[in-house]
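Exam prep: given the inputs below (a chain plus 6-AZA uridine 5'-monophosphate), describe the expected output before reading on.
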Amino acid sequence: SGEMSYGARAALSSTHPIAKRMFTLMEEKHTNLCVSADVTHTQELLELAETLGPLICVMKTHVDILQDFSMDAINKLKELSDKHNFLIFEDRKFADIGNTVKHQYEGGVYRISSWSHIINAHSVSGPGVVTGLKAVGQSLGHGCLLIAQMSSQGALTTEQYTHTTVKMADSHPDFVFGFISGSKVSTKPEHVHMTPGVQLQSGEICSVFNLVFNPRCFVPRRFLGDELGQQYTTPEQVIRLKGSDIIIVGRGILSASDRRKEAEKYRKAGWEAYLSRVSLN
Ligand code: UP6
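Solution:
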């Protein structure tokens, strides 16, 4: 499936409607970039959606870190997602029993199911989490990603865990359309793989640097990861070597003085890595 184009995968009859829309707009806009909009104010969130909208396929949110969350801001975000043709992905990482996640998805302050095209869930609690979320989201035409691997150091997502997670997705093709993972974990071309922990300057470049110059203090810590266990790889590694489909980039873009220019660098790097992968065919 790594060799099939996004467009060809959109055309498969068994591809979930959300994945179809995603693959199609990725081909149209020439982007496999998802920006992780980890900001604390709605105005900044909307500014990101307006400026980066044309460059991204998905905007990933953490609405529970917003200090001024409002449904009014969410409605504006929805308008921008229509205007610039990107999907909204609330990175809620549901992880409880089916009945609880159903309420968390539908209700509370955030009413996630009313606006987010995509949500995700940990598989740790078993298949009930999917059944619960599906009871709310399927009729709304929404889709879910299962977290099969994590980017952080010491993550407990073992090979067996990842394998069982893929099987769980396989039993719910009408709702689960892909994975959060560091690499391609499913052989089905209809599955979408999205990968976080991406920066243009990753640990690998650093290792080479370290071999030559040794003193560790020469290498800014942020090139390796962060102080809290995040680990980074490059767009090229993620898309071409690991066979994932979408790069998720937060601080790589957010910490730049010109976010649009930086996002364009990531879009280009991700897209070129995709083109080289598809042309290997
Ligand atoms: N994220 C990860 N790793 C995972 C799953 N999710 O980093 O395994 C999310 C984080 C954050 C984003 O919650 O929103 O992806 C990564 O941000 P960064 O690019 O600034 O490190």
